[in-house]
Backbone:
């Protein structure tokens, strides 16, 4: 038991949010959740959701608290569940524990469950406070909220860029713009996202492995997505030699499959899962990825894929690695005139990674 004096709901919820972060990279498609049980100013139980299918944060905290939970308060970053999935309903366990009050960061965004857990508790005489550090609770699970509200993954667009807004020295030429520190950071991000997506041009030109390396240990398989309406991905691509890291999903269209049916066969024999869309629609493509438990998608390249997703309004965050080089007029532009630019993104918090600058910002649409 650890003593906490003169604590407020706000302070205790902050600790619960910190606990929840420990599950990052391991809970998807479930949310990250943290929980505390307090009794007369003392924290008597702590818990977090450690992995998908594992015990929920509330249950872990209540197990640690034991009989000390009776008459106490529960702090939970997300509304306790009232349905049976791979685990039982948390609200039943909360009632059985004899808690007097529950403090919730934010309601469950799933329209099938939102508010139901809170009503269940209140109907059984438990006081429930909702909305403590709500903005932080939503941001913690931005991918989960995006899936529930928009029926697609949360999309982060990643790009390495020269000072003059170029991504390569010439079309079809592989260009290494950034240094070792950026590589370490980028692979660290790969270690926690659900999926990486690239266009077929990136596979043809760079032949990437699309894995998390350099000490970035993953808790779950990493889904690798290739958007390929022309079925250009070669079955000899190196990424098919990394299927132990996670599945490779080729997203194409009915028109592409009809034109090159033999290519789809080659790819499936190489180990790919071929997802066929009725039309070329980025929004439909993203929604299809939910079937592969992809809630958090890292959009790595190339330019045409970035432009398509940006134009469709499907980018939630931009992670830009700015290199101190100029590629000149012959270089390949990242975005077309009038689309995204360093200046238009705004709101970035700069951070040096060796000689390169990291700019990361939530998208602020200007149109």
Residues:
């Amino acid at each position: 038991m650890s003593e906490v004096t003169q604590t407020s709901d706000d302070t205790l919820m902050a600790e619960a949010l910190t606990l929840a972060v420990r599950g990052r990279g391991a809970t998807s498609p479930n949310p990250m959740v943290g929980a505390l049980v307090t009794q007369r100013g003392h924290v008597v139980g702590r818990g977090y959701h450690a992995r998908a299918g594992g015990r929920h944060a509330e249950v872990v905290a209540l197990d640690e608290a034991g009989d000390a939970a009776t008459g106490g308060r529960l702090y939970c970053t997300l509304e306790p569940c009232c349905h049976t999935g791979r685990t039982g309903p948390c609200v039943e366990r909360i009632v059985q524990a004899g808690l007097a009050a529950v403090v919730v960061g934010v309601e469950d965004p799933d329209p099938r469950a939102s508010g139901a857990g809170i009503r269940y508790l209140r109907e059984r005489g438990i006081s429930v406070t909702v909305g403590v550090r709500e903005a932080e609770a939503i941001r913690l699970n931005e991918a989960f909220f995006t899936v529930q509200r928009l029926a697609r993954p949360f999309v982060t667009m990643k790009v390495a860029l020269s000072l003059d807004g170029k991504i390569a020295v010439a079309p079809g030429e592989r260009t290494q713009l950034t240094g070792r520190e950026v590589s370490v950071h980028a692979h660290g991000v790969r270690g926690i996202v659900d999926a990486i997506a690239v266009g077929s041009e990136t596979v043809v030109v760079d032949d990437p492995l699309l894995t998390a390396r350099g000490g970035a240990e993953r808790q779950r398989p990493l889904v690798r997505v290739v958007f390929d309406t022309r079925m250009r991905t070669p079955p000899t691509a190196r990424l098919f030699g990394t299927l132990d890291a996670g599945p490779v999903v080729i997203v194409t269209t009915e028109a592409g499959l009809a034109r090159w049916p033999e290519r789809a066969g080659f790819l499936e024999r190489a180990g790919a899962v071929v997802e066929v869309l009725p039309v070329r629609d980025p929004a439909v493509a993203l929604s299809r990825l939910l079937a592969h438990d992809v809630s958090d998608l890292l959009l790595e390249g190339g330019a045409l894929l970035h432009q398509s997703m940006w134009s469709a309004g499907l980018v939630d965050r931009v992670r830009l690695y700015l290199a101190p080089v100029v590629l000149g007029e012959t270089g390949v532009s990242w975005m077309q005139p009038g689309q995204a630019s360093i200046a238009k993104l705004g709101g970035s918090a700069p951070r040096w990674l060796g000689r390169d600058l990291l700019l990361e910002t939530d998208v602020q649409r200007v149109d």
